[in-house]
Amino acid sequence: DTGVSQNPRHKITKRGQNVTFRCDPISEHNRLYWYRQTLGQGPEFLTYFQNEAQLEKSRLLSDRFSAERPKGSFSTLEIQRTEQGDSAMYLCASSGPGSYEQYFGPGTRLTVT
Amino acid sequence: EDQVTQSPEALRLQEGESSSLNCSYTVSGLRGLFWYRQDPGKGPEFLFTLYSAGEEKEKERLKATLTKKESFLHITAPKPEDSATYLCAVFSSGNTGKLIFGQGTTLQVKP
C-alpha cells in the first residue's frame, strides 16, 4: 500500500498526559498537512509543511501542540498536557509537487479521559 | 474569510433514487474545489477536483459540477454502497496550502 499511513490508529490517554502521532506521506509528496476532525464536522486545518519547513499554523494550534517534519519525509504531531477538548480524529494528508490535491491517511482517533 | 456550506446535512434515498448535494462557497479567488467521500471511522477519500466554472467531472454514478458560487455532486441511481459522508473543500488564492471544508452531507441509501 503506497498511501498515507498514520500511527497509532487509536489512542486513549488520561488528561494531562502527552501524546505523539506519526504520519508517513505518499512517497515523493513534498507537502504534508495536519487536520483535526470532530464528530459531525469537516476537517479543520492545523498546520502545513513543505519539505521540512513548517509554512503555516492555524490559530487552533495552541502552545501545547507541536509538529515536526525533520527530514522532509514523515511527520510527528505532539500534544502536551492533553485536555478532554483534544479528543478528536487527527488526520494527515499529503500532496505532490505542483498539485493541490491532498490525499488523506486513515487518521488517529484520540480519546482523552 | 473563506467559507464553505453544504446542504442538506443529511439525505436519505431509496436505491435508484437520483439526487444532488450542494456546496456553496465564498472564497477570495478559487484555485480548486474538491469533493471527498468519508466512511465512518476512516479518512476522507479523494473523488474530484474542479478548477473553473463550467467544469464537470464524472466517476461511476457520481458527477460533480462547478459554478462561480457553488458546486453540485449529482448521484445517479445510487446503491447502498454509496452511503457515506460527502465533503466539499476549497483551496483559495488567500491560502498557502490548506483546504477549507464544509461540514459534510451524510448520505444513506436504502435497498
Question: What this model shows, in words?
Answer:
The complex is a heterodimer of chains A (113) and B (111). Chain A is mainly β and 113 residues long. In chain A, 0% of the residues lie in helices and 50% in strands. Chain A has strands spanning 5-7, 10-13, 19-24, 31-37, 44-50, 53-57, 65-68, 75-79, 88-95, 103-104, 108-112. In chain A, the strands form 2 sheets. In chain A, strands 2, 4, 5, 6, 9, 10 and 11 form a 7-stranded mixed β-sheet that branches. Chain A has a 4-stranded antiparallel β-sheet with strand order 1-3-8-7, with no helix packed on it. In chain A, strand 7 (65-68) and strand 8 form a beta hairpin. Chain A starts with a strand and ends with a strand. Chain B has 111 residues and is mostly beta strands. Chain B has no helices and 11 strands. In chain B, strands 2, 4, 5, 9, 10 and 11 form a 6-stranded mixed β-sheet that branches. In chain B, strand 7 (62-66) and strand 8 form a beta hairpin. Classes of the chains: A mainly beta (113), B mainly beta (111). Chains A and B meet through strand 5, strand 9 and strand 10 of A and strand 4, strand 5, strand 9 and strand 10 of B.
